[in-house]
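User: Some background: our group keeps a shared notebook of sequences we're curious about, and every so often someone picks one and asks for a predicted structure to add to the entry. Today it's my turn. The entry only has the sequence so far, pasted here. Could you supply the structure so I can complete it?
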Amino acid sequence: MRGRWQKLPALLAAMALSSCGYHVAGDSTLPPDVKTVAVPIFTNQSKQFRIEQKVSADITQQLIERTHYRVISEPKGADAVIEGRVKDVQTGVIAFNLSTGAATALQVVVTADVKLVDQHTHKTLFSNSRYVFREQYQISTSSSQLFQEEDPALDRVAQDFARTLVTDILENF
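Assistant: Of course. Here's the predicted structure to add to the notebook entry:
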C-alpha cells in the first residue's frame, strides 16, 4: 500500500501537465488545410514613412523561419491571409537632461490592428485590434544627429511585433 501512495504525486503531476494545454513550440493550432499564408503589405494610417513595409517584411521572415507554411505576398491562392494596418506611430520624450532641459531619451510607440482570415471559410482565425509595441532609444546631443536613432528603433519595434504576432498566431492566444 505504501508504494502506491508514493507514486501518487508523480501520477497527479503527469495528469496535470498533460491536460494544461501545453504543446510543442512551433506546432500550430491553425486548421490542417492551411498550407499557404499570404502576408500582403499592411495599410499605413500613420504618418511614419514605410513602417507598414517593415512590419510586413518582418512578419514574412518570421513565418518563413519558424513555420512550415508557404508564405506569399498576394492573397490569391493562399489558404489564409494576415491582414493588418498600422494605426498610429507616436514618439515621445521619456528622459531629460536636468541641467539643460534637453531630451535625452525618446520612446516610439506603434499601434496596429491585425487579423488572420481563413480564405476557404472566411472565418477569422486570429484577431487583435490593439497591438501596441514600444521601443526606447537615446538621442544624440548633437543636433545634426538628432533623429538618426529613430529608424533603428522602428526596426526593433517591427521585429518585436513580427515575433509576437507569429507566436500569438501559432499558439492561438
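Suggested note for the entry: The helical segments are 2-18, 51-66, 150-171. The chain has one domain: 22-171.
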